[in-house]
């Protein structure tokens, strides 16, 4: 049956593109309250499109931008079909600076085998691959192989503030899904499709040091009392050793070494460190000794200062001995590291490093564990097979250095693992002018999605 | 002759106070352009008062507030009298917050043996001690014992921006002075008058670190490239050892240990470290191991971070890997340390500490050597004897931790040492509401000034 579905998908290439152009024409910019009517229109469009594929589809209002929530009704899928949750978002980044766009951001235009528009890759274009695949299944097979719940939000680009509430209020409906499928990432490189199975976690702190009760003259008082800016540099400067390793006792205790086979796979990826360094504007990369840059980003924990504030920051010289110094400090965590265990070790170590005459205040501003969907899990196996069918290439199993909040929420609120299956390319200009999606990727994405639901039905049984 | 002068000073106590009250009534607030007429009036008042003491006196206009410049004409001083330069300022700090003043800041009021007004101690009250003494010498002896140049500026509270220009344009007239006398400091404590003979110098740097060309996502890129905020903490954190000593190679090489007799004198001063810590709002003091807090402020070099800036400094968490981090860093230098030698050592050491993948930029924002007027110099000996005469107590020879720009300028532009002879007390509320001068200090200050010119004439011959 998948064969017929794929043939029909191939036959209707032009109408998929026309439909996507319609959706991309709505300036659904979540950051701009004036665009609320366009947000509604883009949500409505998706709701009706899902109805066209036979799903029961409606809007879930929130304090700002609604979610689209759709499910396969009884009869549209086999009674014993496994339950899959598809997540995506229909809102887009603001298009500014407008003068840098070759064609207008909300007038989708095809040039050189690519469709250019805001949202072409992030994320309407990738979500639409699924919508097209579902439409094709409905049209040809009169059923969709899995029991499917589709959740599309309209606030991803502004921090998904209302999504956890929607997940919570629909938890009964969502939590018995087997897995979450998300197409909001990219392939590793042209011809190298990727499945993202792991994300790093995070623990984020505000570190406040107080010395004297007020700022003092650094001449009159310098040397007599502890300077919190000096203390901050000393304490934070002590958190790495000369080999770039974090010195917090126990920091690496629970870190799992990555499977050698996976490391070999990563080493073979088309990734050039010198070229990467050049693209970032640095002479050379730097990090934990003994690991490649990809390993350091994907499977090694880190500690980074995200912000520093103290004393006088304006132009010229001011001889102030500051009374306050503060830093934002975050640690990226890898699978098997417990954020709260690391938090305790971090706090304890800073207390040890603190010089006399300084008050230390610590505030946790965020904590989430790393996420890992095992490569040998049935959902990842199905996704890999679907990619082979859709892209005619083996996928690589990569990881992502950042946390993705929705992945964390699906895990924490529903207990669900996510599989990240990106159809775009690294040069899609996300959040930048001239965002695009290659038409090859688009059509291969539809084929992959069509195969995915068939394979998930078989693997998850 | 001094005896008679002192007797006449004693007899005219009320008129000195009345004259001071007149001068204090002008709101000569240099920071406020709307007060320019009051600035002019206060300058005129001093000019005419000096004429009353027989000096040739005029205003030197500047781009903002004029200087008062006065000299003893031929005949007013002995032909072979040594030349002394008296510096002071007639401008004052803004009086705000007004609601905290018990009596209005420009309605001088005597309560409990103190005169309350803005400028009572800083600096009109102290300058007036000299004006009164000169008046008494003229009245009783018909001469002033030294050849005197008086330079009063009107921009001390706003950074003395035009003073170096005035010094330069009058260098011929000023540079053959033997010494500069400044009464713009305070006694060490009630009953413990002080002569300040040493000031620390300064070298001030802006340290800029650049990593990648733009800020990056700390999840996606964290661990792959050097983070300039991490690097800054590591580099600056490495500038002190566990005993609070600066680790820059050679930093202490030229530091002179203080004369044991002077250290004994300082140890005997009424200075309680625990009380000092409490007044600053800290549990305990902190600094270079092996030295008292007074020693650390007066005769030990220091390194202080005056400002830190990097990445995200707003509320909440932002997972940014900053591309820039910068710090303001200054070092207080002591006599015999060469600022440029220290500068070179500092720059060289930071280059050594810099991790790979980071660009280091260094900008010198100021440099001045420490100042030291030897205790056994004739001018200091004269000042000490004058204090004994005026305050009936032995002065202590203290130092000041900060640099005083005018002292640096007199040294650099004219080659002149300064003797700082303060008549006020540490609790005079300088720059704060209810500024005051104890009348005891005021009258003892006039007596000291009267004796000083007599003794300088003898000692400097």
Features:
2 domains, 4-stranded antiparallel beta sheet, Aminopeptidase, 36% helix, Alpha-Beta Plaits, homodimer
What does this structure look like?
Two copies of one chain form a homodimer. In chain A, 36% of the residues lie in helices and 21% in strands. Chain A has 461 residues and is an alpha+beta fold. Chain A folds into two domains: 2-199 and 370-459, Aminopeptidase; 201-255 and 301-368, 2-Layer Sandwich (Alpha-Beta Plaits). In chain A, the strands form four sheets. In chain A, strands 1, 2, 3, 6, 7, 8, 15, 16 and 17 form a nine-stranded mixed β-sheet that branches. Chain A has a four-stranded antiparallel β-sheet with strand order 11-13-9-14, with helices on one face. A three-stranded antiparallel β-sheet of chain A has the order 4-5-18. The longest helix of chain A is centred in the C-terminal third of the chain and has 21 residues, at 439-459. The first copy, chain A, starts with a helix and ends with a helix. The model of chain A has no long low-confidence stretch (mean pLDDT 95). At the A-B interface, strand 10, helix 7, helix 8, helix 10 and helix 11 of A face strand 10, helix 7, helix 8, helix 10 and helix 11 of B.
């Amino acid at each position: 049956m998948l064969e017929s579905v794929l043939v029909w998908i191939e036959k209707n290439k032009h109408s998929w593109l026309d439909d996507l152009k319609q959706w991309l024409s709505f300036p659904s910019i979540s950051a701009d309250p004036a665009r609320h009517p366009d947000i509604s229109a883009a949500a409505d469009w998706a709701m009706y499109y899902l109805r066209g594929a036979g799903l029961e589809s409606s809007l879930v209002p929130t304090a700002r931008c609604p979610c689209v929530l759709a499910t396969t009704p009884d009869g549209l899928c086999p009674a014993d079909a496994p339950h899959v949750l598809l997540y995506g978002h229909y809102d887009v980044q603001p298009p500014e600076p407008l003068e840098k766009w070759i064609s207008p951001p909300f007038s989708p235009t095809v040039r050189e085998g690519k469709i250019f528009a805001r949202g072409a890759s992030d994320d309407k274009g990738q979500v639409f691959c699924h919508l097209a695949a579902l439409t094709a299944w409905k049209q040809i097979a009169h059923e969709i192989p899995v029991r499917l719940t589709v959740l599309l939000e309209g606030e991803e680009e502004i921090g998904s503030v209302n999504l956890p509430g929607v997940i919570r209020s629909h938890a009964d409906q969502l939590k018995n899904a087997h897995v979450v499928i998300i197409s909001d990432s990219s392939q590793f490189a042209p011809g190298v499709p990727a499945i993202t199975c792991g994300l790093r976690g995070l623990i984020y702190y505000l570190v406040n040091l107080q010395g004297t009760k007020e700022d003092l003259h650094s001449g009159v008082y310098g040397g007599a009392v502890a300077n919190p800016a000096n203390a901050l540099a000393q304490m934070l400067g002590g958190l790495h050793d000369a080999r770039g390793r974090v010195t917090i006792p126990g920091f690496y205790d629970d870190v799992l070494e990555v499977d050698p086979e996976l490391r070999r796979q990563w080493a073979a990826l088309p990734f050039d460190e010198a070229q990467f360094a050049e693209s970032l504007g640095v002479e050379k990369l730097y990090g934990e000794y003994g690991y490649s840059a990809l390993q350091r980003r994907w499977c090694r924990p880190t500690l980074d200062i995200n912000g520093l504030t103290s004393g006088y920051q304006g132009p010229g010289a001011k001889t102030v001995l500051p009374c306050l110094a503060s830093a934002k400090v975050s640690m990226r965590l890898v699978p098997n590291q417990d954020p709260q265990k690391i938090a305790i070790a971090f706090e304890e170590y800073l207390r040890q490093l603190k010089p006399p005459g300084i008050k230390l205040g610590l505030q946790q501003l965020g904590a989430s564990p790393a996420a890992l969907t095992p490569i040998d899990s049935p959902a990842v196996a199905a996704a890999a097979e679907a990619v082979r069918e859709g892209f005619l290439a083996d996928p690589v199993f990569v990881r992502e250095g950042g946390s993705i909040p929705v992945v964390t929420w699906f895990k924490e609120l529903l207990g669900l693992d996510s599989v990240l299956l990106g159809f775009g390319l690294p040069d899609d200009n996300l959040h930048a002018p001239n965002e695009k999606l290659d038409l090859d990727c688009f059509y291969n994405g539809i084929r992959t999605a069509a195969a995915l639901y068939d394979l998930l039905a078989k693997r998850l049984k």
